Amino acid sequence: MFNTASTTPEKILQMLAALLLFAAVMGVILFIAGRFGGKRGDKVVAYLYLLPAVLMLAVGLVYPGLRTIYQSFFDAAGNAFIGFDNYHTIFTDKDQLTVLRNTVFWVVVTPFVATAIGLVYAILVDKSRFESFAKALIFLPMSISFVAAGVIWKFVYEYRPDQGNVKQIGLVNQVIVWLGGKPIQLLIESPLNSFLLIIVMIWIQAGFAMTILSAAIKAIPDDIIEAARLDGVNAWSMFRKITLPSVQPTVVVVLTTIGIGTLKVFDIVRTMTGGNFDTSVVANEFYRQTFNADNQGLGAALAVLLFVLVIPIVIYNIRSLRRSEAS
Amino acid sequence: MFGQPTSPRFRAALAGTLSAGLVLGLAACGGDDSDSGSGTDASAAAIDCAPYTKFGDIKGKTVTIYTGIVTPEDTPHIESYKPFEQCTGATIKYEGDKSFETQVLVRARAGNPPDLAIVPQPGLVKQLVSTGKAVAAPQEVSDNVDKFWDKAWKAYTTIDGKFYGAPLGASVKSLVWYSPSEFKDKGYTVPTTLDELKALSDKIVADGGKPWCAGIASGDATGWPVTDWVEDFVLRTASPEVYDKWVNHEIPFNAPEIQAAFDAVGGYLKNDAYVNGGLGDVKSIATTTFQDAGLKILEGQCSLHRQASFYAANFEKGTKVAEDGDVFAFYLPGKDANTKPVLGAGEFVVAFADRPEVKAFQTYLSSDVWANTKAKLSSGWVTANKGLDQANLTNPIDKLAGGILLDPNATFRFDGSDMMPAAVGSDAFWKQSTAWITGQDTKTTVDNIEKAWPK
């Protein structure tokens, strides 16, 4: 039953077995819970219900997390303890520093630009005649996977030489040629290439920012807006003094959510350049070190670094969420 | 797939192809196999059962075999096991898995290994042996390998004096693709020495063409075609002995011989007069996928493309791959006409059990009988098993590759980057070669790779 299933009926059988197991476990818990009553009983029942989730988190998240941290202090094969050497490598090795530099580019540029575009767009199309159509247009990239987006944009950046009857097939280079320029190998030129990859992420995330922010804008009470209108504010003051302060908590959530997503970006880099030409980022390098270079120690250290970088953003995100819920 | 189905780069390349959306190329891959797999029961019928009956009565027993070879290339494999099943009454359970290379290690470590695994790199065989779960090959298999294979092959999977994996298939990488009709029209001849290859390239330049096209993009495995070039040139500008020392790190990666080989490759790949036909300048090599580059031969944009035998499947369906067809390959010549170094790859059968039925099946797979049965069933597959009757190979490129592999004057060497530690063979060597193509000098490149070699 626990062997790898190779045929479809076997797989279905395994799935049924798993479902039965799940039902059995739930049955046992409910049965035990049913035997408790009264005030103290409620508490016991609550803990019992939490038990499966806590157990699974412990096995699936806490243990691997701790194990990764432990591994990050060991060498490539995972045999010898080497202290902070892996971390030392991350912050001194030339290639690794490029990786960190690129990650900084990504995290600084993507959330702010994507959120700004989303906010401006949300305001511009708000209550316009084409609102739903315009929104759908910018929201569409959200529904595409990162890998597919990477493939699409790889075509956009595609290069063909300026040679005889060879025609450009990439949009950007075709535009350059129309303007009288020479085609550029866009994905090779560093650090330009990193920013070209960042554009893909912005293209995807702007739709997300727009959707959330648009909902927040619609939630601004009409009487505030009307009062401001009566006071005769112009469009800019309306944005600065009414809209922005009202949606500020949402902006923070959007910024941080995109920030976390950006820190973990992997698919776009892997699809478009494979981390070559100085475009690697932490998540991609972590994969590369672990699975290509067979350096489990350094891979684990990079994973831990990613974890450490994400934590403050997550904490900030949760706190601002709580604050906005409280108010 | 093709000759050497599951080398890591190939799989990475495959992943790259998929993610790059170039599914067209894939669809064309091995498209012929389904035809060749059927209707051959007659040829698969009668074999001599004696070598297997001596393992005792294994009727009704099952042997599981786990591989990275999936549809459609798995069909000829499964078909080729039938004579053994008919002889012994045992059942072979075949399991193909695209993530074989990581999963086989996971399964071995978890104590749930298959009976047999088809492993495409000696490095992975070593890793599997180090889990302690692999068992040494039985005497019958060892004898078969002594009889049918060049002794270099046995050494690849002999670890601490014990022999673990009998070779199965093999492939040839030292090939240059060209257009026979173009050669005929322009009066070019197939070169037989490295100097002639250079002279031919110069002649094409003089005729106003770009002789070579190359592409090394392959997702996160980008750079691997350069490593094949360098390996081929170490074998030629230095020697097979230097090559062995280099692969085993008995000489450093930045030794003068290796630098010289890099520079010799640079004479082709980093030479703006020679590359990159229809694709741009030298740097365009880094962004052109390895699947796309050689197709320019058919468009008349370039004349030569160095790539392994599996590249045959990359040409559009309907392209005639033959000596008198649209496109064919010649052996990348040695320094002179008498030395014939061959770079290639292959796969090995590693056992995790020593039950009689497993041993019997291992013996069958290492025999000339199996090699010939398999050859008749598949297209795009060769082996270096000396018992192979070349008449059984079905298509021209297999015949060419088989001829090169079984040439008694040839010196075969396994793809070096598959044998180097992963930190070099599937990381630094690829990455630094890519940087080398985009402008980094040779000295920095080899120094960086040497630095990455695990201490």
Give an overview in words.
Chain B: Keywords: Signal, Transport. Chain B: Belongs to the bacterial solute-binding protein 1 family. Chain B: Residues 1-27 form the signal peptide. Chain A has 327 residues and is mainly alpha-helical. Chain A folds into two domains: 8-71; 85-145 and 205-326, MetI-like (MetI-like fold, Orthogonal Bundle). Chain A contains 13 helices and no strands. In chain A, helix 8 packs across helix 10 and helix 10 (235-263) runs antiparallel to helix 13 (296-326). The longest helix of chain A is centred in the N-terminal third of the chain and has 34 residues, at 38-71. Chain A starts with 7 loop residues before the first helix and ends with a helix. The model of chain A has no long low-confidence stretch (mean pLDDT 87). With 455 residues, chain B is an alpha/beta fold. Chain B folds into two domains: 8-171 and 345-413, Periplasmic binding protein-like II (D-Maltodextrin-Binding Protein, domain 2); 175-307 and 420-452, 3-Layer(aba) Sandwich (D-Maltodextrin-Binding Protein, domain 2), CATH 3.40.190.10. In chain B, 45% of the residues lie in helices and 13% in strands. Chain B has 23 helices and twelve strands. Chain B has helices at residues 8-19, 23-28, 33-37, 41-45, 50-53, 74-80, 82-88, 100-109, 122-130, 139-148, 151-156, 180-186, 194-206, 224-237, 240-247, 256-269, 284-287, 290-293, 356-365, 368-377, 396-406, 422-437, 442-452, and strands spanning 62-67, 91-96, 116-119, 158-159, 162-163, 166-172, 175-178, 210-212, 302-306, 328-331, 340-351, 410-414. In chain B, the strands form three sheets. In chain B, strands 1, 2, 3, 6, 11 and 12 form a six-stranded mixed β-sheet that branches. A four-stranded mixed β-sheet of chain B has the order 8-9-7-10, sandwiched between helices. In chain B, strands 4-5 form a two-stranded antiparallel sheet. Chain B starts with 7 loop residues before the first helix and ends with a helix. The A-B interface holds A 3-4, 6, 76, 147, 150-151, 154, 159-161, 163, 166, 185, 187-188, 270-271, 274-277, 287-289, 291-295 and B 16, 19-21, 93, 95, 102, 107, 112, 217-223, 276, 278-281, 283-284, 286-287, 421-423, 426-428, 431, 434-435, 438, 452, 454.
